Amino acid sequence: MRIKSRGVILDDDKIFLVEIAQLGFYCLPGWKMEEWETTKQCIEREIFEELWVKPQVWQLIYIQEFFDEDGKIVIDFWYLITNSEDFKNIDLLKVSHWFEIGKYWFYDLNEVNFIYKPIELKDVLEKIKKWEFSHFNWNC
Prior knowledge:
The chain is an alpha+beta fold. Helices cover 16% and strands 36% of the residues. It has one domain: Nucleoside Triphosphate Pyrophosphohydrolase.
């Protein structure tokens, strides 16, 4: 079993995605949890390693379970990250894992059909937004 944490970073109707350069697909930032950390600590570490931004992790918003291409169970914990402005000026020259990242930016939800499956990112995010995140303060 693999446990991963991902960051959901929204800016209006756009979502921040990173391209995994070696594999050529886009996904939410984050990756697998180390034995010594919690899922929240994982997303804090992974985003900092990948993008050199200290994320403001607000709340767990989604858990996804699926089988990967090797038949192993993967559990993804998705956390809402509230400091989206900090992700608009990333300097990959400072990042320790720069070689893993291809492109990154905020993408329109209608343009995310190129995302690595089995994550139905657009469907999940539409449900999350409808699920009445409207009562939350996005600028926490």
